[in-house]
Each structure stands twice: as structure tokens, then as C-alpha cells.
Write a structure and sequence with these properties.
By secondary structure, the chain is α+β, with helices and mostly antiparallel strands. It is 19% helix and 30% strand.
Length: 289
């Protein structure tokens, strides 16, 4: 299974041009992906740089053979009645069992710029890995307390899913909303976490003691493939708008059962189609040769 995660900055490149086509082309140049997770996808925000259009629809049109699931963290209406949405999109060509959209905490942090955040979860059926939850998110940048609360919530969502997988509801085939669901402890959590690996939010995600299902806790995929080599930068390589010096803040975390299947993790260090760099992860047989 091949997965790419990318904060697209509403598909706005460093040249100021908004181009969903360029994002899709850039992802395809990295890999023949099975799953594409995009953050900062816009719909109706005409005042943003480059004036993005209906990007969920545009991306779906550019990805024939894939099913696209857009989760809006921001969903609001202007006085004239026009709608604005901003959030994450998961596209996959794998069979899909379930789709869930979870609002993340937004605790008060007075006077600090912030916006709502969410996590989209798409349960896919991989021929190699079986059922797994693809979770993609984009955490708060300006508020450390909000970012930590959101990270802990992500851990809680994973813990809950693992607990239900271990003790599933009564089965049903009655065709109603109670009918049996696919439950799995296996998950990939990816996105823009707006924090370096040393941040408290990242520490919370990889903590082995964040819940009753610690045996299924998250591992950072990068050291699984690269050992002690520092994570390649994913932000501020070419643009210093948000600070000087490159950093890694776009990560892929995998649940313990998937960790042996991580074959490679790569970052495109050349593209300027966004202010972030895309991250590619390939999963394969546990026995590597």
C-alpha cells in the first residue's frame, strides 16, 4: 500500500498560482499512490491568495478511479448566504468500509489566532494489510494548548476504536444502521501536526501509555525506515513567512501492528506546489529483504 500526505495550502504554490492539477501531478510523480491525504483544501474562500474554487470537486475530477472524502473543519456561511468550507480530503482507490469525521477540541485560548480542526477517518480494505483506518488531520499552529488537546483527542479516538475492535457490538445483518461495522486496531495517522517532533503534542501521540490500548499505540514511521537519521524537513524550505529555518511537522504515524510493514518513507524536497513538502510511505510484507 502506498500513501502520500500533503498540506496543499489550498493548492497554492509559492508562485501564488492555485492549481489542484499541480498537486495531483506532484503526488503522482512521487508514487502510484493507493491513498492520498490532503490538508488545507478550500471551497468558497474567494479572498484567499489565488482565489481557490471548489477544490473538493476539482480534486475528485482529477482523480478518476478514486473515491474522495472531504471533511470540513470550517463550515460557515457569509452574510450573503454563500458557503465556505476548509478542511481535509482523503482519496483512495482501495475498497472503503466506513467514513467518519471527528471535530477536534477547540478550547479557549484568548487572544490567540486559531480555527476549528478535525480528523477524517476512512477505513479501507487493503489486500496486504487488511482493514485499517486512515486518519488525516491538521492541528492548530498558533496555540500550543489547543494543539495538545487535539493530539490527545486523536489518541482517544484511536483508543476507542481499538477497544471496540477488541469487544465489538452484537452483530447484525438486518440492513439497518445497526448492521455490523468493520472494526480494526490498525491505523495510519497522518497530516500536518504543526509541531516539531519535540513538541508536547507529538510526544502525546507516540506515548506508550496514552490509553488502555497502549499495545496498539502509534509509532513515528520515519525512524522505522531511517533509524536515527533526522526527519527530512517538510515546512519552511523555501518560504519564511511562518519563521526561519526548515522543520519537519508533517508526519505519518502507524499503529504497532503496522510498524513492521513500513518499507520506506520519503519526502519530496524539491516541489514548490505548496508551502509544505509531501510525505510518501510505502507498506509491504513484514519480512523485508
Amino acid at each position: 500500500m502506498k500513501l502520500i500526505t500533503w498540506n496543499t495550502q489550498w493548492c497554492c504554490g509559492l508562485d501564488g498560482t492555485v492549481s489542484p492539477q499541480r498537486i495531483v501531478d506532484g503526488a503522482r510523480a512521487m508514487a502510484d499512490f493507493d491513498v492520498l491525504c490532503l490538508q488545507e483544501v478550500a471551497q468558497g474562500f474567494g479572498r484567499l491568495r489565488g482565489k481557490p474554487g471548489d477544490q473538493p470537486a476539482q480534486l475528485a475530477a482529477l482523480l478518476p478511479g478514486y473515491r474522495c472524502f472531504f471533511g470540513a473543519a470550517v463550515d460557515e456561511f457569509l452574510p450573503d448566504g454563500s458557503r465556505q468550507r476548509f478542511g481535509n480530503l482523503v482519496a483512495t482507490r482501495l475498497p472503503v468500509a466506513r467514513v467518519q469525521h471527528h471535530a477536534l477540541p477547540w478550547p479557549a485560548d484568548g487572544g490567540v489566532l486559531s480555527m476549528p480542526r478535525m480528523c477524517t477517518v476512512v477505513t479501507v480494505l487493503s489486500p496486504l494489510l487488511g482493514a485499517l483506518r486512515v486518519m488525516t488531520t491538521h492541528l492548530e499552529y498558533y496555540s500550543a494548548p489547543q494543539r495538545l488537546a487535539q493530539a490527545l483527542s486523536l489518541c482517544g479516538l484511536h483508543d476507542e476504536a481499538c477497544a471496540v475492535a477488541a469487544a465489538p457490538p452484537q452483530p447484525s445483518d438486518d440492513g439497518s444502521p445497526f448492521q455490523t461495522k468493520v472494526h480494526t486496531p490498525h491505523a495510519v495517522l497522518c497530516g500536518d501536526f504543526n509541531a516539531a517532533a519535540s513538541d508536547a503534542a507529538i510526544a502525546a501521540i507516540v506515548s506508550p501509555a496514552h490509553g488502555a490500548n497502549a499495545a496498539h499505540g502509534f509509532r513515528n514511521a520515519w525512524p522505522l525506515a531511517h533509524g536515527s537519521t533526522p526527519h527530512a524537513p517538510t515546512f519552511r524550505l523555501f518560504d519564511t513567512t511562518y519563521g526561519a529555518g526548515p522543520m519537519a511537522c508533517d508526519f505519518v504515524f502507524v499503529s504497532a501492528g503496522l510498524a513492521p510493514h513500513v518499507l520506506q518513507v520519503q519526502v519530496d524536497l524539491q516541489t514548490r506546489a505548496s508551502d509544505h513538502q509531501p510525505v510518501f510511505v510505502e507498506f509491504g510484507n513484514a519480512a523485508k529483504g
